Amino acid sequence: MQRLIWILWPSFVVAGVAEAVFFTLVDPQELYLFGEAVHYSRLATYSIGFFAFWAVCAASSAFTCFLQGTVASGKS
Amino acid sequence: MAQPAPRPEPSGAKVIPIREASLYEAHKKIYARSVTGTFATWRWAMVWFTQAIFYGLCWLEWNGRQAVLFDIVERKFYIFGLVFWPQDVFYLAILLIISALALFLFTAVAGRLFCGYACPQTVYTEIFMWVEKRFEGDRVARMKLDAAPWSAGKFARKAGKHAVWALIALWTGFTFVGYFTPIETLAGAVLSWQLGPWETFWIFFYAFATWGNAGFMREQVCKYMCPYARFQGVMFDPDTLIVTYDAERGEPRGARAKKLDHKAAGKGDCVDCGICVQVCPTGIDIRNGLQYECIGCSACIDACDQVMDKMAYPRGLIRYSTEHALAEHWGGRQIVRHILRPRTLVYGAVLTAIVVAAAAGLTLRQPLKVDVLRDRATLAREVEGGLVENVYRLQVMNLAEQPRRFVLAVTGLQGIRIANEQIVEVPAAATQSVSVRVRVEPDAGKRGANPIHFEVRAVNHDEVFVREKASFLLP
Prior knowledge:
The complex is a heterodimer of chains A (about 80) and B (about 475).
Chain A (H helix, E strand, L loop, with lengths): L1 H24 L6 E2 L2 E2 L4 H33 L2
Antiparallel strand pairs in A: 1-2
Helix pairs in contact in A: 1-2
Chain B lengths: L37 H20 L3 E2 L2 E2 L1 E4 L4 E4 L2 E3 L4 H22 L2 H6 L1 H17 L2 H9 L4 H26 L5 H9 L5 H21 L1 H7 L1 H5 L10 E4 L1 H4 L24 H4 L20 H13 L6 E4 L1 H6 L3 H6 L4 H22 L4 E7 L6 E2 L5 E11 L5 E8 L5 E2 L4 E4 L3 E11 L7 E11 L2 E14 L1
Antiparallel strand pairs in B: 1-2, 3-4, 4-5, 6-7, 8-10, 9-10, 10-14, 11-13, 11-15, 12-14, 15-16
Helix pairs in contact in B: 1-4, 2-16, 4-6, 4-8, 6-8
Protein backbone atom coordinates (compact mmCIF):
# COMPACT_ATOMS: atom_id res chain seq x y z
CA MET A 1 0.00 0.00 0.00
CA GLN A 2 2.74 2.39 1.09
CA ARG A 3 4.79 1.48 -1.96
CA LEU A 4 1.73 2.10 -4.13
CA ILE A 5 1.37 5.58 -2.67
CA TRP A 6 5.10 6.21 -3.24
CA ILE A 7 4.63 5.31 -6.88
CA LEU A 8 1.25 6.85 -7.67
CA TRP A 9 1.33 10.07 -5.67
CA PRO A 10 4.58 11.76 -6.84
CA SER A 11 3.80 10.69 -10.41
CA PHE A 12 0.34 12.27 -10.09
CA VAL A 13 1.86 15.59 -9.02
CA VAL A 14 4.53 15.56 -11.71
CA ALA A 15 1.98 14.50 -14.34
CA GLY A 16 -0.15 17.49 -13.36
CA VAL A 17 2.78 19.84 -13.85
CA ALA A 18 3.80 18.18 -17.11
CA GLU A 19 0.22 18.35 -18.38
CA ALA A 20 -0.07 22.06 -17.58
CA VAL A 21 3.24 22.95 -19.21
CA PHE A 22 2.77 20.73 -22.26
CA PHE A 23 -0.75 21.82 -23.13
CA THR A 24 0.00 25.47 -22.45
CA LEU A 25 2.65 25.33 -25.11
CA VAL A 26 0.95 22.90 -27.49
CA ASP A 27 -2.61 23.12 -28.77
CA PRO A 28 -4.02 19.56 -28.77
CA GLN A 29 -5.75 20.26 -32.08
CA GLU A 30 -2.34 20.67 -33.67
CA LEU A 31 -1.07 17.27 -32.60
CA TYR A 32 -0.58 14.36 -34.94
CA LEU A 33 -1.14 10.79 -33.87
CA PHE A 34 0.34 8.11 -36.13
CA GLY A 35 0.53 10.66 -38.91
CA GLU A 36 -3.09 11.72 -38.64
CA ALA A 37 -4.44 14.86 -37.05
CA VAL A 38 -5.93 14.26 -33.62
CA HIS A 39 -9.71 14.29 -34.02
CA TYR A 40 -10.75 13.91 -30.36
CA SER A 41 -12.28 16.87 -28.56
CA ARG A 42 -9.82 19.01 -26.64
CA LEU A 43 -11.26 17.81 -23.33
CA ALA A 44 -10.67 14.19 -24.35
CA THR A 45 -7.12 14.94 -25.48
CA TYR A 46 -6.35 16.74 -22.23
CA SER A 47 -7.72 13.86 -20.19
CA ILE A 48 -5.96 11.15 -22.17
CA GLY A 49 -2.80 13.26 -22.09
CA PHE A 50 -2.98 13.51 -18.32
CA PHE A 51 -3.31 9.77 -17.88
CA ALA A 52 -0.51 9.15 -20.35
CA PHE A 53 1.76 11.51 -18.37
CA TRP A 54 0.68 9.84 -15.15
CA ALA A 55 1.42 6.38 -16.53
CA VAL A 56 4.89 7.39 -17.74
CA CYS A 57 5.74 9.10 -14.46
CA ALA A 58 4.40 6.14 -12.48
CA ALA A 59 6.57 3.81 -14.54
CA SER A 60 9.60 5.90 -13.60
CA SER A 61 8.64 5.91 -9.90
CA ALA A 62 8.02 2.17 -10.00
CA PHE A 63 11.43 1.58 -11.57
CA THR A 64 13.09 3.69 -8.86
CA CYS A 65 11.19 1.77 -6.19
CA PHE A 66 12.20 -1.52 -7.76
CA LEU A 67 15.90 -0.58 -7.91
CA GLN A 68 15.87 0.65 -4.32
CA GLY A 69 14.29 -2.57 -3.17
CA THR A 70 16.87 -4.65 -5.00
CA VAL A 71 19.76 -2.76 -3.39
CA ALA A 72 18.30 -2.87 0.10
CA SER A 73 17.58 -6.60 0.17
CA GLY A 74 20.10 -7.87 -2.35
CA LYS A 75 23.30 -7.28 -0.30
CA SER A 76 23.56 -10.55 1.52
CA MET B 1 11.51 8.23 3.95
CA ALA B 2 13.64 5.21 3.30
CA GLN B 3 17.02 5.14 4.92
CA PRO B 4 19.96 4.73 2.57
CA ALA B 5 21.01 1.14 2.30
CA PRO B 6 23.84 0.26 4.72
CA ARG B 7 27.31 -0.01 3.23
CA PRO B 8 28.43 -3.55 2.51
CA GLU B 9 31.09 -4.90 4.85
CA PRO B 10 34.60 -5.26 3.42
CA SER B 11 35.10 -8.68 1.84
CA GLY B 12 36.16 -11.35 4.28
CA ALA B 13 34.25 -9.87 7.16
CA LYS B 14 31.23 -11.70 8.43
CA VAL B 15 28.18 -10.36 6.68
CA ILE B 16 24.96 -10.04 8.56
CA PRO B 17 21.90 -10.08 6.33
CA ILE B 18 19.91 -6.92 6.83
CA ARG B 19 16.19 -6.86 6.45
CA GLU B 20 14.71 -3.47 5.97
CA ALA B 21 11.77 -3.02 8.27
CA SER B 22 8.97 -0.60 7.58
CA LEU B 23 9.65 2.74 9.19
CA TYR B 24 5.99 3.60 9.48
CA GLU B 25 4.02 2.18 12.32
CA ALA B 26 0.64 0.74 11.43
CA HIS B 27 -1.82 3.56 11.01
CA LYS B 28 -4.07 4.16 13.98
CA LYS B 29 -7.30 5.97 13.31
CA ILE B 30 -7.31 9.35 14.99
CA TYR B 31 -10.47 10.39 16.77
CA ALA B 32 -9.94 14.12 17.11
CA ARG B 33 -12.06 15.72 19.79
CA SER B 34 -13.91 18.82 18.67
CA VAL B 35 -12.78 22.10 20.15
CA THR B 36 -14.06 25.64 20.54
CA GLY B 37 -12.20 28.86 21.19
CA THR B 38 -10.53 31.81 19.54
CA PHE B 39 -8.49 29.84 17.03
CA ALA B 40 -11.32 27.42 16.26
CA THR B 41 -13.42 30.47 15.40
CA TRP B 42 -10.68 31.74 13.12
CA ARG B 43 -10.43 28.34 11.48
CA TRP B 44 -14.16 28.26 10.84
CA ALA B 45 -14.08 31.82 9.52
CA MET B 46 -11.43 30.69 7.04
CA VAL B 47 -13.54 27.66 6.09
CA TRP B 48 -16.47 29.98 5.29
CA PHE B 49 -14.24 32.48 3.53
CA THR B 50 -12.37 30.03 1.31
CA GLN B 51 -15.45 27.97 0.50
CA ALA B 52 -17.62 31.00 -0.23
CA ILE B 53 -14.98 31.89 -2.82
CA PHE B 54 -14.63 28.35 -4.18
CA TYR B 55 -18.32 27.45 -4.39
CA GLY B 56 -19.50 30.96 -5.23
CA LEU B 57 -17.02 32.53 -7.62
CA CYS B 58 -17.88 30.21 -10.51
CA TRP B 59 -21.48 31.52 -10.53
CA LEU B 60 -20.53 35.20 -10.86
CA GLU B 61 -21.11 36.90 -14.19
CA TRP B 62 -18.92 39.52 -15.85
CA ASN B 63 -19.45 41.09 -19.29
CA GLY B 64 -22.15 38.51 -19.98
CA ARG B 65 -19.90 35.52 -19.31
CA GLN B 66 -18.62 33.57 -16.33
CA ALA B 67 -16.36 35.90 -14.32
CA VAL B 68 -13.71 33.31 -13.52
CA LEU B 69 -13.40 30.57 -16.09
CA PHE B 70 -10.37 28.57 -17.14
CA ASP B 71 -11.82 27.64 -20.49
CA ILE B 72 -9.44 24.85 -21.48
CA VAL B 73 -11.55 23.89 -24.51
CA GLU B 74 -11.30 27.40 -26.01
CA ARG B 75 -7.79 27.79 -24.53
CA LYS B 76 -8.61 31.09 -22.84
CA PHE B 77 -8.56 31.96 -19.15
CA TYR B 78 -11.02 34.61 -17.98
CA ILE B 79 -10.46 36.33 -14.65
CA PHE B 80 -12.98 39.16 -14.34
CA GLY B 81 -11.89 41.81 -16.84
CA LEU B 82 -8.76 39.97 -17.92
CA VAL B 83 -8.49 37.41 -20.69
CA PHE B 84 -5.37 35.26 -20.77
CA TRP B 85 -4.24 33.41 -23.86
CA PRO B 86 -1.66 30.62 -24.08
CA GLN B 87 0.82 33.36 -25.08
CA ASP B 88 0.39 34.84 -21.59
CA VAL B 89 1.91 31.82 -19.86
CA PHE B 90 4.48 34.26 -18.51
CA TYR B 91 1.86 35.58 -16.08
CA LEU B 92 1.19 32.05 -14.84
CA ALA B 93 4.89 31.70 -14.04
CA ILE B 94 4.78 35.05 -12.21
CA LEU B 95 1.73 33.89 -10.25
CA LEU B 96 3.58 30.75 -9.16
CA ILE B 97 6.58 32.81 -8.05
CA ILE B 98 4.31 35.16 -6.09
CA SER B 99 2.59 32.20 -4.40
CA ALA B 100 5.90 30.61 -3.48
CA LEU B 101 7.30 33.87 -2.06
CA ALA B 102 4.10 34.51 -0.10
CA LEU B 103 4.36 31.02 1.35
CA PHE B 104 8.00 31.66 2.35
CA LEU B 105 7.04 34.96 3.97
CA PHE B 106 4.06 33.62 5.91
CA THR B 107 6.02 30.58 7.02
CA ALA B 108 8.93 32.68 8.24
CA VAL B 109 6.57 34.93 10.22
CA ALA B 110 4.14 32.45 11.72
CA GLY B 111 4.86 28.90 10.61
CA ARG B 112 2.29 26.80 8.87
CA LEU B 113 -0.51 29.36 8.70
CA PHE B 114 -1.54 28.03 5.32
CA CYS B 115 -1.77 24.44 6.55
CA GLY B 116 -3.72 25.29 9.66
CA TYR B 117 -6.27 27.66 8.17
CA ALA B 118 -6.44 27.72 4.39
CA CYS B 119 -5.20 24.44 2.92
CA PRO B 120 -8.07 22.60 1.18
CA GLN B 121 -7.00 19.44 3.01
CA THR B 122 -7.58 21.12 6.38
CA VAL B 123 -10.72 22.92 5.26
CA TYR B 124 -12.49 19.84 3.85
CA THR B 125 -11.36 17.71 6.77
CA GLU B 126 -12.91 20.32 9.05
CA ILE B 127 -16.21 20.21 7.12
CA PHE B 128 -16.26 16.41 6.97
CA MET B 129 -15.50 16.14 10.69
CA TRP B 130 -18.36 18.49 11.44
CA VAL B 131 -20.71 16.19 9.50
CA GLU B 132 -19.21 13.17 11.26
CA LYS B 133 -19.89 14.71 14.64
CA ARG B 134 -23.53 15.38 13.70
CA PHE B 135 -24.06 11.69 12.88
CA GLU B 136 -21.70 9.84 15.18
CA GLY B 137 -21.12 12.21 18.09
CA ASP B 138 -17.84 13.46 19.51
CA ARG B 139 -14.61 11.54 20.12
CA VAL B 140 -15.71 9.05 22.79
CA ALA B 141 -19.05 8.31 21.11
CA ARG B 142 -17.27 7.67 17.82
CA MET B 143 -14.73 5.34 19.41
CA LYS B 144 -17.56 3.40 21.05
CA LEU B 145 -19.54 3.27 17.82
CA ASP B 146 -16.57 1.93 15.87
CA ALA B 147 -15.88 -0.70 18.51
CA ALA B 148 -19.54 -1.79 18.70
CA PRO B 149 -20.83 -4.67 16.57
CA TRP B 150 -22.88 -3.80 13.51
CA SER B 151 -26.50 -2.94 14.24
CA ALA B 152 -29.29 -1.10 12.48
CA GLY B 153 -28.48 2.03 14.46
CA LYS B 154 -24.77 1.92 13.63
CA PHE B 155 -25.56 1.29 9.98
CA ALA B 156 -27.98 4.24 9.87
CA ARG B 157 -25.42 6.58 11.41
CA LYS B 158 -22.64 5.47 9.09
CA ALA B 159 -24.88 5.53 6.01
CA GLY B 160 -26.17 8.99 6.87
CA LYS B 161 -22.64 10.30 7.29
CA HIS B 162 -21.48 8.85 4.00
CA ALA B 163 -24.56 10.13 2.16
CA VAL B 164 -23.87 13.70 3.31
CA TRP B 165 -20.15 13.29 2.60
CA ALA B 166 -20.94 12.05 -0.89
CA LEU B 167 -23.24 15.01 -1.53
CA ILE B 168 -20.59 17.50 -0.42
CA ALA B 169 -17.94 15.66 -2.45
CA LEU B 170 -20.06 15.58 -5.59
CA TRP B 171 -20.93 19.25 -5.28
CA THR B 172 -17.22 19.99 -4.85
CA GLY B 173 -16.40 17.93 -7.95
CA PHE B 174 -19.11 19.68 -9.92
CA THR B 175 -17.84 23.09 -8.81
CA PHE B 176 -14.27 22.16 -9.68
CA VAL B 177 -15.20 21.12 -13.21
CA GLY B 178 -17.34 24.27 -13.42
CA TYR B 179 -14.14 26.32 -13.42
CA PHE B 180 -13.00 24.60 -16.61
CA THR B 181 -16.23 24.35 -18.58
CA PRO B 182 -18.88 27.08 -18.23
CA ILE B 183 -20.80 26.12 -15.09
CA GLU B 184 -24.26 27.09 -16.34
CA THR B 185 -23.91 24.84 -19.37
CA LEU B 186 -22.57 22.16 -17.06
CA ALA B 187 -25.52 22.54 -14.67
CA GLY B 188 -27.93 22.31 -17.61
CA ALA B 189 -26.19 19.17 -18.81
CA VAL B 190 -26.38 17.61 -15.34
CA LEU B 191 -30.09 18.42 -14.99
CA SER B 192 -30.94 16.99 -18.40
CA TRP B 193 -28.67 13.93 -17.95
CA GLN B 194 -26.61 14.94 -20.96
CA LEU B 195 -23.23 15.32 -19.35
CA GLY B 196 -20.29 14.49 -21.59
CA PRO B 197 -18.22 11.43 -20.65
CA TRP B 198 -15.13 13.39 -19.64
CA GLU B 199 -17.00 15.95 -17.55
CA THR B 200 -18.75 13.09 -15.76
CA PHE B 201 -15.45 11.35 -15.22
CA TRP B 202 -13.70 14.42 -13.76
CA ILE B 203 -16.64 15.32 -11.49
CA PHE B 204 -16.55 11.83 -10.01
CA PHE B 205 -12.76 11.75 -9.92
CA TYR B 206 -12.57 14.99 -7.95
CA ALA B 207 -15.50 13.97 -5.75
CA PHE B 208 -13.77 10.69 -4.98
CA ALA B 209 -10.54 12.51 -4.13
CA THR B 210 -12.42 14.89 -1.81
CA TRP B 211 -14.29 12.06 -0.11
CA GLY B 212 -11.13 9.98 0.33
CA ASN B 213 -8.85 12.80 1.44
CA ALA B 214 -11.24 14.55 3.82
CA GLY B 215 -13.07 11.46 5.04
CA PHE B 216 -10.31 8.88 5.40
CA MET B 217 -6.78 10.04 4.60
CA ARG B 218 -6.98 13.24 6.64
CA GLU B 219 -3.75 13.81 8.61
CA GLN B 220 -1.96 11.11 6.58
CA VAL B 221 -2.02 13.43 3.58
CA CYS B 222 -0.13 16.01 5.64
CA LYS B 223 2.25 13.49 7.19
CA TYR B 224 3.11 11.27 4.25
CA MET B 225 2.08 13.04 1.06
CA CYS B 226 2.61 16.76 1.49
CA PRO B 227 6.05 17.95 0.39
CA TYR B 228 5.65 21.23 2.28
CA ALA B 229 5.69 19.40 5.62
CA ARG B 230 9.11 17.99 4.77
CA PHE B 231 10.87 21.20 3.88
CA GLN B 232 9.15 23.57 6.28
CA GLY B 233 12.18 23.24 8.57
CA VAL B 234 14.38 25.32 6.30
CA MET B 235 11.84 28.16 6.35
CA PHE B 236 11.66 28.41 10.12
CA ASP B 237 14.10 30.36 12.23
CA PRO B 238 14.28 31.09 15.98
CA ASP B 239 11.98 34.11 15.51
CA THR B 240 9.20 32.23 13.73
CA LEU B 241 5.91 32.13 15.60
CA ILE B 242 4.94 28.52 16.16
CA VAL B 243 2.52 26.65 18.41
CA THR B 244 4.64 26.08 21.48
CA TYR B 245 4.26 24.38 24.83
CA ASP B 246 5.94 26.37 27.59
CA ALA B 247 7.81 23.49 29.21
CA GLU B 248 9.46 25.71 31.78
CA ARG B 249 6.07 26.74 33.09
CA GLY B 250 4.32 23.42 32.61
CA GLU B 251 6.80 20.91 33.99
CA PRO B 252 6.87 18.84 36.07
CA ARG B 253 3.38 17.97 34.88
CA GLY B 254 0.87 15.93 36.78
CA ALA B 255 -2.69 15.65 38.08
CA ARG B 256 -3.54 17.60 41.17
CA ALA B 257 -6.51 18.79 43.20
CA LYS B 258 -7.77 22.19 42.09
CA LYS B 259 -7.27 23.73 45.50
CA LEU B 260 -3.69 22.55 45.86
CA ASP B 261 -0.97 25.17 45.74
CA HIS B 262 0.83 23.27 43.02
CA LYS B 263 3.85 25.55 42.96
CA ALA B 264 4.51 24.85 46.62
CA ALA B 265 4.11 21.16 45.85
CA GLY B 266 6.82 21.48 43.21
CA LYS B 267 4.49 20.97 40.24
CA GLY B 268 4.25 22.90 37.01
CA ASP B 269 1.06 24.25 35.42
CA CYS B 270 0.42 21.24 33.16
CA VAL B 271 -2.27 19.08 34.72
CA ASP B 272 -1.52 16.31 32.22
CA CYS B 273 -5.17 16.01 31.20
CA GLY B 274 -4.14 14.95 27.69
CA ILE B 275 -6.81 17.08 26.02
CA CYS B 276 -4.19 18.79 23.83
CA VAL B 277 -3.41 15.34 22.40
CA GLN B 278 -7.08 14.43 21.99
CA VAL B 279 -7.93 17.51 19.94
CA CYS B 280 -4.89 17.22 17.68
CA PRO B 281 -5.95 16.31 14.15
CA THR B 282 -2.57 14.70 13.50
CA GLY B 283 -2.48 12.92 16.85
CA ILE B 284 0.78 14.36 18.21
CA ASP B 285 1.68 15.60 21.67
CA ILE B 286 2.74 19.23 21.33
CA ARG B 287 4.47 18.96 24.71
CA ASN B 288 7.23 16.99 22.97
CA GLY B 289 8.22 20.14 21.10
CA LEU B 290 7.89 21.15 17.47
CA GLN B 291 7.25 18.16 15.22
CA TYR B 292 6.94 17.99 11.48
CA GLU B 293 3.41 16.57 11.83
CA CYS B 294 2.18 19.81 13.46
CA ILE B 295 0.05 21.66 10.93
CA GLY B 296 -0.21 24.74 13.15
CA CYS B 297 -4.00 24.54 13.54
CA SER B 298 -3.86 25.76 17.18
CA ALA B 299 -6.58 23.38 18.35
CA CYS B 300 -4.35 22.50 21.32
CA ILE B 301 -4.07 26.19 22.26
CA ASP B 302 -7.85 26.54 22.50
CA ALA B 303 -8.17 23.27 24.41
CA CYS B 304 -5.41 24.09 26.90
CA ASP B 305 -6.72 27.62 27.48
CA GLN B 306 -10.07 26.16 28.53
CA VAL B 307 -8.36 23.84 30.99
CA MET B 308 -6.27 26.71 32.35
CA ASP B 309 -9.49 28.72 32.84
CA LYS B 310 -11.03 25.85 34.79
CA MET B 311 -7.95 25.58 36.98
CA ALA B 312 -7.86 29.39 37.34
CA TYR B 313 -4.29 29.41 35.98
CA PRO B 314 -3.21 32.04 33.46
CA ARG B 315 -3.85 31.13 29.82
CA GLY B 316 -1.11 30.44 27.31
CA LEU B 317 0.63 27.34 28.63
CA ILE B 318 0.41 26.35 24.96
CA ARG B 319 0.57 29.45 22.77
CA TYR B 320 1.99 31.03 19.67
CA SER B 321 5.55 31.91 20.56
CA THR B 322 9.05 31.80 19.15
CA GLU B 323 12.14 29.86 20.14
CA HIS B 324 13.89 33.08 21.14
CA ALA B 325 10.91 34.43 23.03
CA LEU B 326 10.65 31.26 25.09
CA ALA B 327 14.36 31.21 25.91
CA GLU B 328 14.61 34.93 26.71
CA HIS B 329 11.16 35.32 28.34
CA TRP B 330 10.09 37.95 25.85
CA GLY B 331 6.71 39.60 25.96
CA GLY B 332 4.35 40.11 23.04
CA ARG B 333 5.87 43.43 22.05
CA GLN B 334 9.36 42.02 21.67
CA ILE B 335 8.05 39.11 19.60
CA VAL B 336 6.26 41.54 17.29
CA ARG B 337 9.41 43.63 16.98
CA HIS B 338 11.33 40.55 15.81
CA ILE B 339 8.88 39.91 12.99
CA LEU B 340 10.82 42.56 11.10
CA ARG B 341 14.16 40.89 10.52
CA PRO B 342 16.39 40.60 7.45
CA ARG B 343 14.74 37.39 6.27
CA THR B 344 11.16 38.70 6.32
CA LEU B 345 12.21 42.10 5.00
CA VAL B 346 13.95 40.51 2.00
CA TYR B 347 10.99 38.21 1.28
CA GLY B 348 8.61 41.15 1.68
CA ALA B 349 10.62 43.44 -0.57
CA VAL B 350 11.01 40.86 -3.35
CA LEU B 351 7.33 39.96 -3.10
CA THR B 352 6.22 43.59 -3.30
CA ALA B 353 8.52 44.27 -6.25
CA ILE B 354 7.18 41.30 -8.23
CA VAL B 355 3.53 42.07 -7.43
CA VAL B 356 3.99 45.70 -8.50
CA ALA B 357 5.81 44.68 -11.69
CA ALA B 358 3.15 42.10 -12.57
CA ALA B 359 0.34 44.57 -11.89
CA ALA B 360 2.06 47.19 -14.04
CA GLY B 361 2.60 44.65 -16.80
CA LEU B 362 -1.06 43.68 -16.74
CA THR B 363 -2.26 47.27 -16.80
CA LEU B 364 0.00 48.27 -19.66
CA ARG B 365 -0.65 45.07 -21.59
CA GLN B 366 -1.75 45.69 -25.19
CA PRO B 367 -5.12 44.05 -25.85
CA LEU B 368 -3.72 43.03 -29.24
CA LYS B 369 -1.17 40.50 -30.39
CA VAL B 370 0.10 39.87 -33.89
CA ASP B 371 2.06 36.92 -35.24
CA VAL B 372 3.62 37.17 -38.68
CA LEU B 373 4.30 34.02 -40.70
CA ARG B 374 5.84 34.01 -44.14
CA ASP B 375 3.86 32.19 -46.78
CA ARG B 376 5.99 29.14 -47.41
CA ALA B 377 4.72 28.38 -50.89
CA THR B 378 6.04 31.54 -52.53
CA LEU B 379 9.20 33.30 -51.45
CA ALA B 380 9.10 36.29 -53.77
CA ARG B 381 7.36 36.77 -57.08
CA GLU B 382 7.18 39.43 -59.74
CA VAL B 383 3.77 40.97 -60.36
CA GLU B 384 2.30 43.55 -62.75
CA GLY B 385 4.22 46.80 -63.06
CA GLY B 386 7.55 45.09 -62.32
CA LEU B 387 6.89 45.07 -58.57
CA VAL B 388 8.13 42.32 -56.26
CA GLU B 389 5.55 40.69 -54.02
CA ASN B 390 5.94 38.71 -50.79
CA VAL B 391 2.98 37.00 -49.13
CA TYR B 392 2.51 36.80 -45.36
CA ARG B 393 -0.06 35.36 -43.02
CA LEU B 394 -0.92 37.64 -40.11
CA GLN B 395 -2.58 36.21 -37.00
CA VAL B 396 -4.35 39.16 -35.43
CA MET B 397 -5.44 38.34 -31.87
CA ASN B 398 -7.97 40.69 -30.33
CA LEU B 399 -7.64 40.27 -26.57
CA ALA B 400 -10.36 42.80 -25.83
CA GLU B 401 -13.88 41.75 -25.06
CA GLN B 402 -15.40 43.88 -27.82
CA PRO B 403 -15.10 43.20 -31.56
CA ARG B 404 -12.55 45.54 -33.13
CA ARG B 405 -11.39 46.73 -36.52
CA PHE B 406 -7.68 47.04 -37.19
CA VAL B 407 -5.73 48.88 -39.85
CA LEU B 408 -2.72 47.10 -41.27
CA ALA B 409 0.32 48.98 -42.52
CA VAL B 410 3.86 48.08 -43.45
CA THR B 411 7.10 50.10 -43.23
CA GLY B 412 10.82 49.58 -43.73
CA LEU B 413 11.44 49.92 -47.48
CA GLN B 414 11.00 52.79 -49.91
CA GLY B 415 7.49 52.69 -51.37
CA ILE B 416 6.47 49.50 -49.62
CA ARG B 417 2.71 48.91 -49.44
CA ILE B 418 0.02 46.33 -48.91
CA ALA B 419 -1.77 45.35 -52.10
CA ASN B 420 -4.95 43.95 -50.59
CA GLU B 421 -7.62 44.96 -48.04
CA GLN B 422 -5.99 46.78 -45.14
CA ILE B 423 -8.82 46.63 -42.65
CA VAL B 424 -9.36 43.47 -40.65
CA GLU B 425 -12.30 42.83 -38.34
CA VAL B 426 -11.75 40.59 -35.35
CA PRO B 427 -14.56 39.42 -33.07
CA ALA B 428 -14.28 39.80 -29.29
CA ALA B 429 -11.47 37.75 -27.73
CA ALA B 430 -10.77 35.95 -30.97
CA THR B 431 -8.10 35.42 -33.58
CA GLN B 432 -8.38 36.38 -37.23
CA SER B 433 -5.93 35.08 -39.76
CA VAL B 434 -5.38 37.26 -42.85
CA SER B 435 -3.30 36.80 -45.94
CA VAL B 436 -1.32 39.94 -46.78
CA ARG B 437 0.40 40.67 -50.10
CA VAL B 438 3.20 43.20 -49.78
CA ARG B 439 4.69 44.89 -52.83
CA VAL B 440 7.77 47.00 -53.45
CA GLU B 441 9.91 48.26 -56.34
CA PRO B 442 12.67 45.70 -57.12
CA ASP B 443 15.43 48.24 -56.44
CA ALA B 444 14.03 49.42 -53.07
CA GLY B 445 16.41 47.27 -51.06
CA LYS B 446 19.35 44.90 -51.24
CA ARG B 447 19.10 41.40 -52.63
CA GLY B 448 18.01 38.83 -50.11
CA ALA B 449 16.23 39.52 -46.83
CA ASN B 450 15.30 43.10 -45.91
CA PRO B 451 13.89 43.89 -42.47
CA ILE B 452 10.36 45.35 -42.53
CA HIS B 453 7.73 46.01 -39.88
CA PHE B 454 4.02 45.36 -39.85
CA GLU B 455 2.03 47.93 -37.93
CA VAL B 456 -1.41 47.02 -36.67
CA ARG B 457 -3.56 49.71 -35.09
CA ALA B 458 -7.12 49.56 -33.76
CA VAL B 459 -9.62 51.86 -35.48
CA ASN B 460 -10.75 54.58 -33.02
CA HIS B 461 -8.26 53.28 -30.42
CA ASP B 462 -4.90 54.67 -31.46
CA GLU B 463 -3.24 53.48 -28.28
CA VAL B 464 -3.91 49.85 -29.23
CA PHE B 465 -0.94 49.37 -31.49
CA VAL B 466 1.50 46.58 -32.24
CA ARG B 467 4.65 46.62 -34.37
CA GLU B 468 5.89 43.25 -35.51
CA LYS B 469 9.14 42.49 -37.32
CA ALA B 470 9.30 40.49 -40.55
CA SER B 471 11.62 40.15 -43.52
CA PHE B 472 11.02 40.91 -47.16
CA LEU B 473 12.85 38.88 -49.80
CA LEU B 474 14.12 40.56 -52.94
CA PRO B 475 15.39 38.35 -55.79
